[in-house]
Write a structure and sequence with these properties.
- The protein is mainly α.
- The protein has one domain.
- It is built from 11 helices and no strands.
- The protein is globular.
- Belongs to the ABC-2 integral membrane protein family.
- Pfam families: ABC2_membrane.
- One of its GO terms (biological process) is lipopolysaccharide transport.
- Its main location: membrane.
């Protein structure tokens, strides 16, 4: 295990390459290029705001800010899961030629989408200014919430990228799973409107805790649930080390499956 961690550290230059090449590849053939990192979440907000607030007449006070935070944070989550499905399989050519710790591809996917998320934070900041929602000193806890989310998604990315080597059908299921997650967490709806008998959908949903952390800081000027987020982070970190141990024991099986 120690040797595997050292191998990962030695390949940090490859990790940097995976992140930069991943950023370039996403919009390489598009006319607007990197501008899509800002435009995509903005268009999603417009569509859902029209559907929920204009058509259905719901949403409540400060709903545009509530909505943009939910959609941008969820986009970070869903794109990480979707791209992790191909993290190893799309690099089969490299893997077959030289030895690489395969876990590096899951980490690369997570870091790439983390940088994309920073552009989403710009969109959130624009909405905060437009709707005069000014965060208080609690915004200092924003990096903490972001770190917990990155750890959570890195754990999932390692699991999904490994499973997709052997079960390619999982890649087709990811979009359906994330669609369920979009409506199982208060991304576009407010948690307090959920009937009591379904409250467990939010109470036991780690992504809902993370999302509430962002809104608590940016909208409501209150501290996030630090203990719940710490539980997410510690559990994710333990799972990451478990997956690294699993990768180290099964590297040869990955090569054979590819």
């Amino acid at each position: 295990m120690i040797k595997y961690l050292k191998d990962l550290w030695k390949r940090k230059d490859l990790l940097l390459y995976l992140v930069t090449s991943g950023l370039k590849a996403q919009h390489r053939n598009s006319f607007l290029g990197y501008f899509w990192w800002l435009l995509d979440p903005l268009l999603n907000v417009v569509v859902y705001y029209f559907m929920v607030s204009v058509v259905l007449g719901r949403g409540g006070e400060n709903y545009p800010v509530f909505l943009v935070i939910g959609l941008v944070v969820f986009r970070f989550f869903s794109t990480t899961l979707a791209s992790s499905a191909k993290a190893i399989t799309k690099n089969a050519g490299i893997i077959s030629q030289i030895y690489l710790p395969k876990a590096i591809f899951g980490f690369g996917t997570t870091l790439t989408q983390s940088i994309n998320f920073l552009f989403g934070l710009v969109v959130i900041a624009i909405f905060l200014v437009i709707f005069q929602t000014i965060p208080g000193w609690e915004v200092l806890w924003l990096p903490y919430v972001l770190l917990m989310q990155v750890l959570f998604q890195a754990a999932l990315a390692l699991l999904i990228s490994y499973l997709c080597v052997f079960i390619r059908d999982i890649e087709n299921l990811i979009s359906h799973i994330t669609r369920i997650m979009r409506y199982a967490a208060p991304v576009i709806w407010e948690a307090d409107r959920l009937p009591a008998k379904y409250s467990w959908v939010v109470e036991y949903n780690p992504f809902a805790w993370i999302l509430d952390g962002y809104r608590s800081i940016l909208m409501y000027n209150r501290l996030p649930n630090l203990m719940a987020l710490a539980y997410v982070g510690v559990s994710s970190l333990l799972f990451i080390f478990l997956m690294l141990f699993f990768y180290q024991r099964n590297e040869h099986r990955i090569i054979k499956a590819l």
